[in-house]
Structures are given as C-alpha cells and as structure tokens.
Amino acid sequence: MLYGAEHVKRYVETDGEEGHIWQPGVPTLILTTVGRKSGKEHSTPLIYVEDGPDYAVVASKGGAESHPLWYLNLTANPEVKVQVRADRFTARARTADEEERARLWPRLALVWPEYDSYQAKTDRVIPIVVLERVS
C-alpha cells in the first residue's frame, strides 16, 4: 500500500494508474498547497468524494487535536493544485459550511469509516474542504 511521498510520486508518474485507488473502494487525489511559511509546494494524497463538479476531502489528521499542515496552508492560500487520475487543475479550496459538512460527512465516512472514530476522539470539528475547479 502506498503512503506519503511515494504515493504522490507514483500517482503523478502514472497519471493515477497507481495510487488513485488507495485501498479497495477508497479513491485518492493529490492536493498541492503552498506552504504558508516556506512558500514551497507540498503535495498530499487525500481520500475524496465527488460533489457535482467539485471534490470534497477531510482534514482529519487521524483525529489529532490540531489541523493537518495542508489544511493550515490552504486557509492561508486557498489557490491549490489538484490531480484526480490524469486530470490536473487549479482549484479554490474552502471549508465546507455546517450544512455542507452535514451532507458530505456521511458520504465521506462511507468511503472511509475511520472518519467517524477520528471525530469521536477529538474535540475539534474536523473540517471538510471543498475543492472548486478554477482552470
């Protein structure tokens, strides 16, 4: 099973032939943010669901008390790059509002049931990020 930098490398090199399906029934995309401190690009494989023309991902960090760095980066600079299989595009990232979160959470937890246990072990509301295609 692919993880971290190796997951990103193989996904990008194969246009998602390797890595798009991380585990059976669990699709991933590659999200590239700009570091809020470093200004450097950082790419992360994330589980997603499609929501009309948009994609939704979860900033879970396994239920840790702090948000993942990629989430902090996109809150500082919401213009991100996304790759879904061979489709590469620029997107605007935003945190789903309460209504969207209530609608999207069950769909994401259906794909990755651990999200429910991650939420149960933290006091923070785990954000869902909506990625809206720009170009």
From TrEMBL:
Gene Ontology MF annotations: coenzyme F420 binding; oxidoreductase activity
Gene3D superfamilies named in the record: Electron Transport, Fmn-binding Protein, Chain A
Pfam families, per the entry: F420H2_quin_red (PF04075)
InterPro entries the record matches: F420H2_quin_Rdtase, Split_barrel_FMN-bd
A single cellular component GO annotation: plasma membrane
Reaction(s) the record says it catalyses: oxidized coenzyme F420-(gamma-L-Glu)(n) + a quinol + H(+) = reduced coenzyme F420-(gamma-L-Glu)(n) + a quinone
Domain of life: Bacteria
UniProt family annotation: Belongs to the F420H(2)-dependent quinone reductase family.
Protein name: Deazaflavin-dependent oxidoreductase (Nitroreductase family)
